[in-house]
Amino acid sequence: MHVCQPCVSLLLSRPLSAALQQSTRALHQRAHLTLLQHTLIELSCSSYVLSSVDLDAAVHPSPLQEISEEEAVQIHVPSALPPESSTLRPYVDESETLSKLVQLGVNLWKLEQRPNVGSMLVRLDFDADVAPKLLLLKDLGVEETKLGQLVSYLKSKKFSKQSVAAMVSKAPYLLNFSVERLDNRLGFFQKQLGLSAEKTRDVVTRLPKLLCGSLEPIKENLKVCELEFGFRGNEIQHIVTTVPKVLIANKRKLTQIFDFVHNTMDVPHSLIAKFPQVLNAKFLRIRERHLFLEYLGRAQYQPSQPNYISLDRLVFLPDEVFCSEVALATLEDFERFQKTL
Amino acid sequence: MTTQAVRLFRKMNGLFAVYKPQGVHWKHVRDSTESNLLKALNSCPPPAPQLALQFQLLSGGENCSSKDVVLSPSMVPTLADHPLVTGPQFHKVHVGVGHRLDAFSSGVLVLGVGKGNGVLEHLCKSHVTRDYTLEGEFGKATDNFTHTGRVIEKTTYDHVTLDKLERVLAMIQGANQKALITYSQVDLHTQEAYELAVRGLLYPHGKSPPILTGLRCIHFNPPNFTLEVQCVNETQKYLRKLIHEVGLELRTSAVCSGVRRTRDGPFKVENALTRQHWTADSIMQAIAHFSKTTRKIRKSGMYRQTAGPLNSSTQVQEQTRSQTEQINLEHVELSSSTSDTVVDRETPVTLSEGRTKQ
Description:
The complex is a heterodimer of chains A (341) and B (358).
Chain A: H1 4-13, H2 23-43, H3 69-74, H4 89-92, H5 96-104, H6 108-111, H7 117-123, H8 126-139, H9 146-156, H10 161-170, H11 179-193, H12 197-206, H13 209-212, H14 216-229, H15 233-242, H16 251-264, H17 269-274, H18 283-296, H19 311-316, H20 319-327, H21 331-338
Helix pairs in contact in A: 1-2, 14-16
Chain B: H1 4-11, E1 14-20, H2 26-42, E2 51-59, E3 69-77, H3 83-86, E4 95-97, E5 106-113, H4 116-125, E6 130-138, E7 140-142, E8 151-154, H5 162-183, H6 191-199, E9 211-221, E10 224-232, H7 236-249, E11 254-264, E12 267-268, H8 280-289, H9 291-307, H10 314-332, H11 342-357
Helix pairs in contact in B: 4-9, 9-10, 10-11
């Protein structure tokens, strides 16, 4: 049996609202028209089943009507892009810029959290805006633009090409700065720390964030090291060249660690200056390990005494190695001890 | 089609205990556990990207004799499902905190994940007792009752001996027992009250000030001493003030140098996770370990809720009291033997409850 019979009967028995009363007759007429079409197609032995009755069947061709290949290729489907969206997901497949950015490995999800960045990215044209900047970053050597001036300035201060590339990748906002600002910063570091040019370059390459942020906290940290902790000038230099993070560390946490290491563990200044990694470690870790060693009677930090434990081994070894080699106890003992603190 | 990440997320439901180190805010503990759980969830492989139909112009194959380009369809993964565009699969895991510990104290902190957060509420309302170890030091008094505060006065402590300390502790314990009986809303002149008191099943109903159900000195080495306390409805500041008051009663002054929670209801310190174990797999193991306890707490909480509107009947009141008391039975003991026999103790009560109710 032809399935369309129940469809047609359904159409005729559909309840119509009062507003549509006038068009009922037209509907019925159209229904008759489609009924005729149905029977014609049925007679022409087509195997398609009509699932919906198209009221405008007389005007447009039926979607199931067969057409030639050339016409099929010429059909253009307008993309149903939403006019506004909170993410870039609906636009990625359509936009050439966005898909190329994703293929290059840009974290679009992170960037669209920032205000207005999403709209800006959607409006960018890849060839005009994005490509030149990418080529510039790749070469780091174009002389005409402002970014190029910065790079040439850094090169004049004898930063090698790899170090410039490393600095820019770690702290990309460096490229926003003017040349004078960078000059001031480098001069400040060289004067305050009293380091040679080579060492300043090394420190800045390892931690380019030093050049980006404000100089006040760095000055404060240096003052704290000198006055509160009582380190001498050459000790501070050694600490900063080994662990530049001390300059931008949190002042309160730094003081807490130093206070514990110097006063509770009785480690003199010279030893701390020799192993400045201790100042960069987590306070809780140092405290728990020291108290464990003290409980076991192995807390010996003087190099002249037997069973000496160096500070960097205390801090940097993972727990299993620390327990087996330094404390000579099992990991379970260490955990049980931690639960008594 | 559930992915591995979704299956793991659905398993993250329940309670577990964590050992909070001293000097750390409880929020930091909660945030670390949440970020570790999220890390584990987002490290699972993402679902396969959806494929979309694309028509591509390819040169005709060997079958075609002509050199025309031919449109051929192919299924290509959409970039909209790329992880760089969608971001991590999970942004948030609900991790809740039970009875809080302030930054100065250390010890057992109960955390709940997912559906366990509802059970946390029942745990807080169920008047469970908590075990603390308090370290005290004679000789000085500070403004915030801790050894790190500003010193207000210094006194001598040579006259303090162990039996004087025990006498003071016994006096404090007596006062607390009186308060316990008052707040337990039990008429002292009944046989039933006597039996409950003999078995040690009295505990406060409704709102009450902090009450110590047990107090004893476990270590005395002047100037340092250690007290073990079981209490209900307490805050850590109250316990530090207790040390100060003990000093005052002994005609000297004392400060608290450590507050350590060894037990929070059924969660004991042996099963608490230390900082190295705040990772997803250890947490899942701990949740599995405590699943029975969690179910019991949920059942007792639901029973209390259904019995709520019928509070007028004294019979139901007694039933709720004995039900929750059975859960706390293990913990009101002063000798604090650590056994997991709460299971056995509870089942006969539930059976009898069912019978008497019907």
